[in-house]
Specification:
Elements lengths: L5 E4 L11 E13 L3 E10 L2 E5 L11 E4 L4 E4 L6 E6 L2 E6 L3 H18 L6 H11 L7 H9 L7
Antiparallel strand pairs: 1-2, 2-3, 2-8, 3-4, 4-5, 6-7, 7-8
Helix pairs in contact: 1-3
Length: 157
């Protein structure tokens, strides 16, 4: 694990391609309700699922909630530079990082996770080609570029 809580896993060895699937964990604030407001929660990205726990010490007791990233939408908030939302259908998690940089790390890893894990259900090459065309290399976030390089995509070299 690096200083940002980022872990790389290559457990899926039955694949022809050598993709490293990112995992991430750390403390974010999660909106609970109007009575309790924002609460610190330990968030874990692993195996296509974003899970949360009351604290890191509570991970042995099971998660308090989980959301699959497969069809999730990750959306940075329009005004709050530390907030982003993760939603699937009508289930929405409102999450907030301590800094805009930390928020961007989470958004980048979640977006990259969707790109990398999509390989089994869609044409990864076309997906990345479209992504690179929309986001020129000049402006591409270095973390996303590194994930694409891990996927051995010649377009970003």
């Amino acid at each position: 694990m690096d200083e940002h809580g980022l872990i790389f896993s290559d457990e899926d060895d039955d694949s022809e391609n050598d993709y490293q699937v990112p995992e991430m964990q750390g403390v974010l604030s999660k909106w609970t309700n109007y009575i309790h407001g924002w609460q610190s929660r330990f968030i874990v990205l692993k195996d296509g699922t974003l899970s949360y726990y009351k604290s890191e010490q509570d991970t042995g007791f099971g998660c308090r909630g989980a959301i699959s990233l497969f069809k999730a939408t990750i959306k940075p908030h329009d005004f709050d530079e530390c907030r982003f939302d993760v939603s699937v259908n009508d289930c929405v998690w409102y999450l907030r990082a301590e800094t805009p940089e930390e928020k961007q790390r989470w958004v980048d890893v979640l977006d990259a996770y969707k790109v990398i894990t999509c390989k089994s259900t869609c044409d990864l090459h076309q997906l990345i080609t479209d992504y690179v065309e929309v986001n020129s290399r000049k402006y591409m976030n270095p973390m996303i570029k590194n994930f694409l390089l891990i996927c051995d995509v010649s377009l970003v070299r």
